[in-house]
What does this fold into?
Amino acid sequence: MTAKIISERIAATEIAKSTYTPMFFRTADPEQATNLERLLESKPYIQVYDTILSQLQEVIKTDHPSKTLTDAEIEVRINERLAVRNAGDYGVWVYYPWNEKLVHLLDEQEFVYVRTNRNKYKITDQEEATLAQKRIGVIGLSVGQSVSLTMAMERTFGELRIADYDTLEITNLNRLRSGVFNMGLQKTVLVAREIAEIDPFLKVTCFHEGINDNNIENFLTGGGNLDVLIDECDSVDVKIKCRVAARKFGIPVLMEASDRCTVDIERFDIEPDRPILHGYVDHLDLAQMRDLKTMEKKLPYILPIVGIDTMSPRLKASAVEIGQTINTWPQLASAVTMGGGIMADICRKVLLRQLSVSGRYFIDIDELITDGQAKDVEFQAEPEPITLADIKTLSEKMPVSVPVSTVTDAAATRKLMDAAVLAPSAGNNQPWKWYNDGKRLLLFDDPARSFAFANYDNMITHLSMGSAIENVDIAASAAGLALDVDLFPLKSLGNLNPVAAIAVRHESGRVADPLFGYLKSRHTNRKPGDGSSLSGSILDELREEAMKAGVSSVKFLTEKDDIARIADIAGKSDKLRMFIPEGHMDLFRKEMRWGNDPAKIKDGLDIKTLDLKPKDQVGFRVIRDGRAMQLLADWDAGAVLENMTKDLMATASAVCLISGHNFSPESCINAGRAMQRAWLVTEKHGLAVQPVMAPIFHFARMVHGNGGGMSEQIVAKFAAMHHSFIELFNLSLTAEEPLFMFRIFRSEEPAVKSIRLDVDDVYYSN
Ligand SMILES: Cc1cc2nc3c(=O)[nH]c(=O)nc-3n(C[C@H](O)[C@H](O)[C@H](O)COP(=O)(O)O)c2cc1C
It folds into this structure.
């Protein structure tokens, strides 16, 4: 085989690439007979197929459905039909130049009569005649190919206009029915050929350049208005423009997205004022569409169209992998084939005026046909909130040894409470309930608020409570008061509630804690930092203040390499957290507030406080679906979910770890106090802070709770990271229990800060 002969053949084959209309020869006409003869002589390789006699038999049988005719009777009737003509000149010879086939067929009327015979009554003759007058446009020929071919088989149109600028590639072959030799062929040509091979009498008009501003009107109206437009294209721009134009001309638009077989019907023919895409994009400036270059800018337009919140869990999980382990959205032949069928069905009913609804519909097989075994994860029942009656009952059990306040005036106490509620708490859950029993302030944990998977052994609650106690102490100092704090006064009765009994007294000479001035402005910042370094004196001050709360150590990572290593651990931990069903539920169903009414958001994390980039906001909406997360966990995928935390953490000037002497509740309270002091010091120096706690919580569950509630794989992953973590901070585990970690950085202020419950929501007096 020489290269020359191959290239000659390639050149000859190229010519065939653009042809898609068959040629007809009716040899009863002598001129056409001569033309056919010439063709056959010039191309001796043309393959000839002639089944005209059996086609004629089908005509006869179709004519006589009530009789079983003998072969002889059929032959008589065929001869009557042929009259004087010989069978070779009956009907029409159809030549397909792209595959060099010549086929002998019944002519149009008989061909259609027999070919659609098995449609009958599903589609009546009258309906068939109506449909034969209809013009349908299809933009985008992946799902569009399936729709077009199904409609051609069913014969639900007289003219089909198809538009796509793309060519067939090997990656299309998982869902586009076509032969391998068609690679490189325009999809329009491919579809037109396949239709011609099914039924050469159907009219197909190709728009090989796809749809653009210049040809859209021609596509919709040239040669008569379309009766239905089917949009199966990828471009948001074209989707919007073709609808605007279709509405102008009163043409209904149909669309099928193969995921969950999502069907959109927009009846602009009977609802001329209907907003395009059911109003999903009404809030957007459609005129700007053309200039949107980046994905970030396009997303607000794309999301309502694809219905980000209603996608199947598998597609959501796959979306997380786009650009990581896959190039684009996955799509299966089964779904595309089904979409073709559904669209053809709906389109026929629209054309026959048998359907007039508009809207978005799902024909979700996963929901319709299940074996009923896939159960939702069963979460532990959430505890009841603590009531005032519970609080009173517990406070009556207070032993006499517990200190009693000598300062009891309401105004002074109220000031202390004003400071208490400013404390930070994990997920802004504000687990505290304060009670003034007339003798002292009692601090209670409300388990309905603090209950969370991450809250192993109530460690998170105790950290938050520690910060609240520290705030009260600092506020007291500013009023010349001092506190006697008795932690867990009912511990001997086996009760960790109340968390603290606090007696308030005067202390002459007590000076205001210099950190008092920063209580109000302290906040969490989740923006990136500038990575600039911090002076040793600031870090020393921070350590000194934190150590005052009786913790074991306060350590910093400041080297870039070390920060990168801890960033990696933090990113992986945040991802794994979401792979644990309870962890996922804590974050998305309990902590997050999706920002409907800011006035009502007094707890939890308003999505706006996360300062997410538009792309991450989308990611958040995707990973909000626990089923999608479980799929990613099963696939051991979702690496991109590590990036948000990892990238932010990597911009830190320093990462600080506060360790207690042990894992006791008291030690956690002290670490909470230390954390609050350190945080206030950063505030004093205009530095930003974000706690990064997923590694700490899960290490605690692993070390002290034997990894209970986490899968073996997840425990193994945390165990590997724990090892590096210990090494990184050079911890001696017998003396240093890691309890609170945060990144310190320089950045602008966050766009939105979290809000608090009112003092009256959390403070009661007897
Ligand atoms: C114990 C504890 C753990 C926290 N863990 C995280 C964390 O892992 N990631 C994060 O972004 N914020 C974390 N935070 C910050 C809280 O979400 C934040 O303090 C709370 O929403 C109140 O907001 P504020 O700090 O701006 O007042 C944590 C806070 C506390 C007290």
About this structure: The pocket of flavin mononucleotide is lined by residues 424-428, 460, 463-464, 467, 523-524, 526, 605, 690-694, 753-754 (CB under 6 Å).
